[in-house]
Amino acid sequence: MTAYGSIGTALVQVLTNRLGEAYVLTAAGDIEGHITEARGLYRGEALAVVRPKNRDEVAFVLKECAKAGVPVVPQGGNTGLVGGGVPYGGVVLSLARLDKVREIDPINATITVEAGCILKAVQDAANDAGYLFPLSLASEGSCRIGGNLATNAGGTAVLRYGNMRDLTLGLEVVLADGRVWDGLKGLRKDNTGYDLKDLFIGSEGTLGIITAAVLKLFPKPYSRVTAFIGCSSPYDALKVFQRLREATGDQLTAFEYVPEFGIEIVLKHMPGSIRPLAEKHNSYALIELSSPQKDADLQGQLEAVLGEAFEEGLVQDAVIGSSEAQSQALWGLREHLSEVQRMEGGSIKHDVAVPVSRVAEFIDIATKACETEMPGVRVCAFGHFGDGNIHFNLTQPVGMDKAAYLSEWERFNRIVHDIVHGVNGSISAEHGVGLIKRDELVLYKDAVALDLMRSLKRALDPQNILNPGKVVSIGDNAPAALPK
Questions:
Q1: Which one is predicted more confidently, 432 or 477?
Q2: Quick one: average pLDDT of 86-114?
Q3: E strand segments, 201-280
Q4: Side-by-side strand order, sheet with 72-75
């Protein structure tokens, strides 16, 4: 507490008196898990970790921190990958106890949940009510809805259902001064002024703290078919995607691209994994069609498209899941990819988006550029072909020192992000900006857009106490952006 002296001591006591001693953590061992980023790239510090139980307690914490001039960093499941939830002083506000499903409205097809709900719990609650909440992420068993909203999370079903901004109808938000904006309306149409919810979705806790949300539900898919195809290049895979989209419309739920290197490391590190196709291929795609109609002939549609693509040489080999277990095994090859990359050493990650029409071109050009810059670097470009979101990750060369490799992060950022910018893309697609891409925005974001963002930040958080130093840098209290 020495960083804030008597002000910090007094604030902790005020918060303890309201929340209870068990919910204001100050011991080093108790707060350690809240000050370290999931990949270990960033480690911060905090005066305390507070764990309010409801919106009113969140508002109390914000009001008291504003009075004391002490920063607040909201935190959900702490599964972020860009340093956005790492505190550099001040109070960490954990939303873990705000974990109630408040209401399910089956006619309106909405579910109202608190920000601390784990994503899997929301999926299960929707399923129990006979509906689907479609957001699906590798971290869905630990990430929380507040974090999903704060980063505008995407996942594997964006192609069909959209990201969190598309899935959200209303929000409840606590502002920097402790006031509460109650926008929990399940309306599809509301033209009474500015759409305030979109200010907070994707803002990474820098404009306000989301405490609850009204989310869309969808009919459960009763028919589903999964396939795994091998292609000679990402260009051919993109052509197959276009054929499927034209033939099946919104029944095309997922089209996930995976390179051969990705398959190799999953097979190497995940026990029980089996190569799905007899031969190796340059490029693969995991395809899923789904429908709420129980008698939909999805397999017939899929076989027809893939059959034509095979005849034209676009698909070299394919397998269609013949059972739920086989379909899950095919999905496992994609879902374990993020997890196993760390087992191969250092990974310089780029979560980018480009126009769908240029996704194969981007992978091709960026791969060649990085391999030329560092012979032996292992490119693992995978992700969501259908919405143009590619995780362009670079695994260190075999035998290279990890620290030496990671010191090249800025150099490879420039190579990859310049190419992304050149094809009218975005340097952040679904993970957010946080710290790791904050200074990159100055290079690639429109100057007027940056000015507007800073103006919004100053208007909603004039003291700069909400997650300061993240997304946009205001004032002189910003931590270093790139990991050291």
A1: 432
A2: 97
A3: 209-216, 218-219, 223-231, 252-259
A4: 24-25, 48-50, 91-94, 72-75
